[in-house]
Write a structure and sequence with these properties.
single chain, 185 residues, alpha+beta, OB fold (Dihydrolipoamide Acetyltransferase, E2P), five-stranded mixed barrel, 3 helices, disordered N terminus
């Protein structure tokens, strides 16, 4: 297997270093003949802990994905942008439609094949679906980048929505800002 290393740009990388990533071509093609690449992130903290996730982000909110709005590569890997309608905030004061950036997406390799890069197997957002988002704001692009694997939780029932909102509101009350970000907040 061919191994490739690069650093992904995330709003927090610019402002304090959220993660770096290594990815390798696992050679798997799906039905559309798209090669899937796996990427693994080197997080600055344990973001499975909601208090640390909330503490490391600028905004936590419930939102519905309206549409894919674009793709861009800031530092070697694809990033995909989506227009999201903000439903309610847990942390921050977002309203209306915002641009949400997700690391990963489709790219063409040097052989002309289409590749799908997913960070920590974090599937691309789906228009029409509602998610709980944990994001960092990147002013230069005017977008909110989700934390891979932990910052875009799909809401598939009212019970899940209620449970997540309760858990994240509690986490916000007790947020823990990672040491690498304390001076940048």
């Amino acid at each position: 297997m061919k191994k490739i290393t690069f650093t992904l740009t995330l709003a927090a990388v610019i402002t304090g270093g959220f993660l770096g990533a290594n990815y390798l071509n696992n050679g798997q093609a799906n039905a559309d003949n798209v090669i899937t690449l796996e990427a693994h992130a080197n997080f600055i903290d344990d973001f499975s802990d909601k208090k640390k996730l909330v503490g490391a982000t600028d905004n936590v909110f419930l939102g519905k994905v309206v549409e894919q709005a674009g793709t861009k590569s800031l530092d070697g890997g694809p990033e995909t942008q989506f227009t999201v309608e903000v439903i309610t905030n847990v942390k921050g004061k977002l309203s209306g439609q915002v641009l949400v950036n997700q690391q990963g997406g489709y790219q063409e390799n040097s052989e002309g094949q289409t590749e799908l890069l997913l960070i920590e197997d974090d599937q691309l957002l789906v228009p029409g679906e509602t998610y709980l988002f944990a994001t960092r704001y990147l002013e230069s692009e005017n977008w909110h980048t989700v934390v891979p694997a932990f910052g875009d939780i799909k809401i598939d029932s009212e019970a899940k929505r209620s449970d997540l909102m309760k858990a994240f509101k509690e986490a916000y009350k007790n947020e823990v800002v990672p040491g690498d970000l304390k001076d940048k907040k």
